[in-house]
Amino acid sequence: MYHPRPCGCKGQRTCLVCEEDHEAVNTYNSWVNEEQRECSYVYCPMCDLAWPGWETDSWKVHPHHQGEPIRFPGTKIVLDFISEEEERELLTHIDEVPWDPSQSGRRKQNYGPKCNFKKRRVRTETFSGYPSFTKFIQDRFNKVNVLKGFQTVEQCSLDYSLEKGASIDPHIDDCWIWGERIPTLSLLIGSTLTMRKFEGPRTKYNLIDTEGYPAVMREDGIVKEEKEIEMEFRESYQKRNESKKPKENLLKDIEGEKNATPSYSRDGKPYVLRLPMPQRSLLVLYGPARYNWEHGILREDIPSRRVCITYRELTPTYLEYGSKAEVGAEILKASKSFWDHRQHYGLDI
Predict the structure, then answer these.
(1) Three-class SS of 212-255
(2) How far apart (Å, rounded) are the C-alpha atoms in residues 213 and 206?
(3) Which residue, 121, 142, 203, 314, could crosslink 116 as a Cys pair with Cβ 3.0–4.6 Å?
């Protein structure tokens, strides 16, 4: 069970294929219970507020919402980020590129450095850039206010299959090398990103690293200038070195601060939050939504084939003023390249 299976799943991850073919594999269980469904909120991209409810299409009643809303900082949804014609052409080219099997009923096309998050190792020699048919997406990031200065260093396409019962378990994208902002473009259908408050140890997902990262956004919602981020990062690095506090004590301090923060609840019960990802929209997670909440996609929220493209940037550690600047420079250099996919994969031969 814990070895990779022909469908692409391994460990406790499963899809409909391995659930039917392997008796030793546990069947899929939703990670959201009925109580959480009753206490959930749905984010509305029109008013930047989350309203009581479960069905994500409920945001479309805007401005006629009901109930008491809450704020969910760290979220930006750009509707109709690409046109229908751009979507059709993009999907045509995506499907011309070979897909690799992935876990939980998904397929993937990954462009970026090879990372081992547990051992904190990165290999750059196989990273050569991106297919040119995706360049217009990265170019358009400049028009999104929360993506100012975003430098793509990984582009990952995922294909969710209804027939395989595709889903993705709740997680936080690793924080050792992937930076604060995570944009995702949704194609073919609309779907939902379900968020739950992370209550685990700060060592998981390398979250402890974020204690030394300056926020990309200022409190006024404006992206900081690179020099400002650099100055804050250097100051934070100096303070941590001067304190010389043992790692175990630092973890205790962090856990204490976490436990002192108010609980995220509705009527005294923990809630989940539902982020709509309409077809052709761009969802950006940053700040609190990026670091404090796990995100996943439930099997029930994949009614038919869905394709998405997710992008990542580097942490300050890998930028020109960080301790891993040399490796970061190699990654950034490769990230400036765009190539013809037909030639690259020998499709014209």
Answers:
(1) HCCCCECCCCCECCHHHHHHHHHHHHHHHHHHCCCHHHHHHHHH
(2) 12
(3) 121
